[in-house]
Amino acid sequence: LRIAGAAFSITAILFTVVTWSAAVDLVLALSLLGATKLGSFYMQSGEEYFKTSWGVEILLWDGTAHYVMQFWLACACLRGRSAPLTGLFWSGSIINSMPVLLLGAGASVFSERLK
Length: 115
What we know:
Layout: E1 2-3, E2 6-7, H1 10-32, H2 40-45, H3 53-78, H4 84-106
Antiparallel strand pairs: 1-2
Helix pairs in contact: 1-3, 3-4
């Protein structure tokens, strides 16, 4: 499907949605660091393990590096181009960031309250 010169596909929609989630992670990380109060309500009632150093690091990594890579991949998909090196780096990074977050949350003081 082409609208206004952009090629819409499943991958373009996927990368657009995950780019939004990376932006949310950046807002959550900034609220934990005290730069904004926009996402502070979620830290009170949401996933408490984000308050650990592991959680903040993953939120910052996802909100910066993954955001840039996902935005680049979304733009490439919408233009009908490929970005294989960016895609490989992004997929390896996203897969390897989850064990860091889960192990860090499991070993933290919030491990008893994991839902």
